[in-house]
Write a structure and sequence with these properties.
Layout: E1 4-8, E2 20-27, H1 31-38, E3 46-49, E4 55-56, E5 61-68, E6 73-78, E7 82-88, H2 93-103, H3 120-124, E8 127-128, E9 131-132, E10 137-144, E11 149-154, E12 175-185, H4 197-203, H5 211-225, E13 233-237, E14 243-245, H6 246-255, E15 262-265, E16 268-270, H7 273-279, E17 286-287, E18 290-292, E19 299-302, H8 308-326, E20 335-336
Parallel strand pairs: 2-5, 3-5, 4-20
Antiparallel strand pairs: 1-2, 6-7, 7-12, 8-9, 10-11, 10-12, 13-19, 14-16, 15-16, 17-18, 18-19
């Protein structure tokens, strides 16, 4: 295991923010995690970096940055209806989706083209177009720093919520996720009612429904709305869709009759954060190299050399304006270091 000092993290985050890490190493096997703990010269502050697609770097990162490079996709069991895959947490998420589609296994096709690694899936409970990762996750295995051992958490122990899990709370900074076991379906249940999937399938003249067709539709939609980080720095959706009380929503409808929503249960609704941001006039806004994307108001962008702090300040202006206009407080989806 090679430990480097004062490494620029610009190549390792999709915002393209140039800040140094005090220490940096790539984790390619589980033995390296024990080795880290045995090295008394290394700092105990650890930051885990997967694809760098859900992080905003605002300052020098003290401690050691661990780049997750744990690989492997293994079928551990199957029956007539399902197949169980254990996947290394450093695998690229979209590549896993395509692997499943090529194998004829359903369940995660709606999550095509979500950036990042497999290890982020349970942390964020990633979701898109009516599907969440929690629906297919069986177990999550992680190296527990304090216990100095691998611990496996079943689905219920992960406490999954909307873009949320135990790994953001009780287990934050306590574990390094090493693998995730998914249960995929041999017989697909198509989910095409959410968003623009049906319309895109019609536009593509899809005659026979399949998981590949759904994935292709999702890829087309995401490509049309979201900028490529290789072309312009961004971390995808910067904010979560807020959940508010139905009573609050009904009151807002009086002055904002076109406000979209969808049911969230327990007398609450979700309101699209992108709509709120756009209504506050931020879509296409630019101040120096920090801005809001012209086609998707949920996406904050680094046009070239914006600092993480500039993007953070812009996000706070957006939060403040939405709160002033709608009495709704947006929550950032992106992790801030």
């Amino acid at each position: 295991m090679q430990i480097q000092q004062n490494v620029s993290l610009r190549p390792f985050n999709t915002f393209g923010i140039d800040v140094p890490a005090e220490y940096f190493t790539s984790i390619t096997d589980i033995a390296s995690l024990q080795e880290l703990m045995d090295d008394a010269k290394l700092p105990s502050v650890r930051h885990i970096l997967g694809g760098g697609s859900n992080v905003l770097l605002t300052k020098r990162v003290n401690g050691i940055v661990l780049q997750n490079r744990l690989k492997g996709i293994t079928v551990i069991k199957e029956d007539d209806a399902h197949v169980w895959l254990t996947v290394g947490s450093g695998e690229v998420w979209h590549q896993l989706v395509m692997f499943a589609i090529n194998s004829g296994w359903a369940g995660i096709e709606n999550l095509a083209l979500i950036p990042g690694t497999v290890g982020a899936a349970p942390i964020q409970n990633i979701g898109a177009y009516g599907v969440e990762a929690k629906e297919t996750i069986g177990t999550v295995t992680a190296w527990h720093w304090q216990e100095k051992a691998l611990v496996t958490y079943n689905n219920s122990q992960c406490s999954f919520g909307y873009r949320d899990s135990i790994f953001k709370h009780a287990l934050k900074d306590q574990v390094f996720i090493t693998s995730v076991t998914f249960r995929l379906n041999k017989q697909p249940v198509y989910k095409i009612s959410y968003g623009a999937i049906t319309e895109e399938l019609e536009r593509m003249h899809i005659g026979t429904m399949s998981i590949r067709a759904i994935a292709n539709a999702v890829i087309a939609i995401r490509t049309s709305k979201l900028p490529d980080p290789a072309q312009i720095g961004n971390a995808g959706s910067f904010f979560k869709n807020p959940t508010i009380a139905k009573e609050h929503y009904d009151t807002l409808l009086i002055d904002h009759p076109g406000m979209p929503s969808y049911p969230a249960g327990n007398s609450t609704v979700k309101v699209p954060a992108g709509w709120l941001i756009e209504q506050c006039g931020w879509k296409g806004y630019r101040n120096g190299d920090a801005g809001v994307h012209s086609r998707q108001a949920l996406v904050l962008v680094n046009y070239s050399n914006a600092s993480g702090d500039q993007i953070w300040r812009l996000s706070q202006q957006i939060v403040d304006s939405v709160k002033d206009k709608y009495s709704i407080e947006l929550e950032r989806e992106v992790q801030v270091w």
